[in-house]
Amino acid sequence: MVSVAMEAWRWDEANESSEKLDRREHEFRATVRCRQADSLVHGRPIDNAQENWAVWMYLGWAFAPDRHASTYLASALVREGLSRHGAFHVLRTQVARRPGKADAYKDLYTAVRLAPVHWTPNVAEFSLQNLIERLEAGDTPDATVFRNFEEGMAESPLAEAWEKFEKTRTRVRMRLNPEDVLRLNPLFDRVAELLPPV
What is the residue range of 38's domain? Predict the structure, then answer.
């Protein structure tokens, strides 16, 4: 499967399409990745499903890190026993996020959820610092209500950002020792101060 992924990458490079892949190609790659993961989740794994999942997720992410939910590749890496790589992937993705969206806040949550416990304080600190820098530069999630808003879901990117931010803060309080929580509290407070109210 690695050779297939490498051939696809070479093809992209040869055709100078690494930045703007055809929508059908993105959908094909997403379908392949999902089939790998689904086979594991439903207890009917196909050959090398876990490895293929990670490879195809990486292939999709490598060409457009800001267009993919970080949880998919990070989860595959964690399942492969590469939890530090998973945490790094999430943080790298967060740095590449486009402005005006809630994705960086989702990355904060994913990074804290998947990072090894002994890495979590530093992972949270890096992620929160990135959010502070974004907010201080004027990058706030859009408050426009989603067109496909349904009952029970966040109604806007801003509401979604607040939801992930609060879930992360709760997780940090439950998962980390009191000294680490105290160290991170000023960063959480600063994000809460800069993030516009819903």
Answer: 1-63
